[in-house]
């Protein structure tokens, strides 16, 4: 399932690159409220995982999932999965506000947890998750898909690690998305308490990339703002947000997220990232190179002392996160992503949302 026009059901597929033998690492899926569950399980099965169980309260969602992953069996309850000692990792794309509570139950049952972003919506949930991680030693990993499941972003990380742009000092991120037909969206998508707000939701991708690309361990939200500019029928939907962050190492970030992708774009969002270093810069055009009309994605532009270079990396880099996560779960290591990193990104997106100034727009101008 890879729907270029619908970000909610965008599920990248790569080449199989198993790190374990068939049947050696069994996973399950609980709560299929967001289509990202397909991308999460695609990545893991390509790395060798086996999907043993699936559970959701909606039989239609279970049927769709089993069609995509025929080896999965429909569980009668969440408890049937949590009580199965063969299941090592539980994947979930629950309603955003419910992801933390499910994760607590999964970790308490002795299993690692892999949740869609945003992984939580409040600072209280964050503290509960941290305490459970400390108590159980289990993982609370997050599907920050706009980095870990985008080959352009994976390649950019490799270039930075090789010193291609010197020390990264600033990042600009743009995460536009398409709402599509509002009738095709679930009710929780429009309720802020449930989806967490735009900076908490799709802003989480941007903040995680800042931490990763710029080597930031902690950061301060300098300012943030949100607004509903074009969806008056859904007043709780924030369709625009932006923020500025200052990292503990002095690196800075500005990002913008919105729900204004026009119907004429060939994909669900023109996601871009600009990374400035002391010796060069990188631009990522993740999902489309507008105006080329060739359907290509994963464009990486590099400018440094050696000149200008353009890489198109679809199918050439892969998605190493998923194999690393499986091996981390087996060996209790942290090569895919550290727990500290996953939860720091979650914390900062909640803080950005909590302190955001709300913009009220009208034809005469904007008021704050």
Describe this protein with a few key phrases.
about 375 residues; globular; Rossmann fold; Dihydrodipicolinate Reductase, domain 2; six-stranded parallel sheet
Topology, please?
Blueprint: E1 26-32, H1 36-46, E2 50-55, H2 59-68, E3 73-74, H3 78-82, E4 87-93, H4 99-108, E5 112-116, H5 123-136, E6 140-143, H6 145-148, H7 151-161, E7 168-176, H8 192-195, H9 203-213, E8 219-227, E9 240-247, E10 252-258, E11 272-277, E12 280-285, E13 299-304, E14 307-312, H10 320-331, H11 339-354, E15 357-362, E16 365-367
Parallel strand pairs: 1-2, 1-4, 2-3, 4-5, 5-6, 7-10, 8-15
Antiparallel strand pairs: 7-11, 8-9, 9-10, 11-12, 12-13, 13-14, 15-16
Helix pairs in contact: 4-5, 9-11
User: How would you name the CATH homologous superfamily of the largest domain?
Assistant: Dihydrodipicolinate Reductase, domain 2
Instruction: Tell me the series of helices and strands, N- to C-terminal.
Output: EHEHEHEHEHEHHEHHEEEEEEEHHEE
Q: Just name the CATH architecture of the largest domain.
A: 2-Layer Sandwich
The gyration radius over C-alpha positions equals 20 Å
Which consecutive residue ranges, at least 5 long each, have pLDDT under 50?
none
Task: For the largest sheet, list the strands in their spatial order.
Answer: 14-13-12-11-7-10-9-8-15-16
Largest sheet: 10 strands, mixed
Question: Can you identify the CATH class of the largest domain?
Answer: Alpha Beta
* Total of DSSP H or I helical runs spanning 4+ residues: 11
How is the CATH topology of the largest domain named? Dihydrodipicolinate Reductase, domain 2
Query: What is the end-to-end distance?
Result: 41 Å
* Share of residues in strands: 25-35%
Shape: globular
Estimated helix fraction: 25-40%
Structural class: alpha/beta
The number of E-state strands comes to 16
Number of domains: 2
